[in-house]
Amino acid sequence: MTPALLEVRDLRKHFPLRGGVLQRTRAWVRAVDGVSFDVTPGETLGIVGESGCGKSTLARLLLRLIEADAGAVRFNGEDVLAASPARMKRLRRDMQLVFQDPYASLNPRLTIEDIVTFSLLVHGTPRAEAAERARALLGRVGLDARLHGRRYAHELSGGQRQRVNIARALVLDPRLLVLDEPVSALDKSVQAQVLNLLQDLKAERALTYVFISHDLNVIEYVSDRVLVMYLGEVVETGTAEALAESPKHPYTQALFASAPSMDPERRMERLPIAGDPPNAIDPPSGCWFRTRCSFAMARCAETPPQSVPVSPEQMVACYLYDAEPVPAA
Predict the structure, then answer these.
(1) Which domain holds residue 29?
(2) In total, how many domains does the chain have?
(3) Domain assignment present for 235
(4) Residues 112-140, buried b or exposed e (16+ Cβ, 10 A)?
């Protein structure tokens, strides 16, 4: 077995809701609640789920842009959550994040070349060398540095801005790239260009991806394994092929059933899932999905189901599979 590059164990983040004159904590929002997974070198782990399920919070926890309440994150065997500020600065050379909004994440006061150069300057690279490396990387992501380097973010299209974000993340030669909805703000033709660019860069630079998206078509295209989140928890994991062929959890089945199709024979005649996710401040007892699940049983309201293997390639947290034997590999 290849040692994991990224190990996450029981990661938790609850945000306080404050109110009153004294701003006392009145409740907690369970954004991420006990998430665990591994990512091996060279792998792409896709994370999918509805908006508000905790995907973006998880991305920021991995890079310690926000502090976790509990759990562990280990990168290449090193404890990220316990690292000193100086050590964390060094770790962030190897762990980079591409943000969802390609415009809001770029400094409007800096030129494109200066944006990409800035990270190198922070880490002590001489300015001339930093500028040269930035120009070369801008060219690699499809932007002519002579044409675009002196422009500002508002002068670029959405796809060009996201290419700048990718260049900025890669300029430090990281090993792990966390991509938080990197193509959700782009139209379909530009999405395909950016996804193909990411695939090429991964092969060239031996990168490892954690790819976050709500688009199952994108997740299937880029991912080796997929982790399905619902209301801050992991409900199913498995290879992209296994989940596409046979999703097990009712929530995963509903996600696949709701994905748009170009086939007129696959028209949706009834909603695959009803209602809204429950309140993360006061979730229901037991399984949090039971209020929207057509297979809910009495035991679903008692205790949360534990994740169990249903095949050599899949694990699911659902009582429907609690007693099923695991087929031999």
Answers:
(1) 6-109+152-321
(2) 1
(3) yes
(4) bbbbbbbbbeeeebeeeebbebbbebbeb
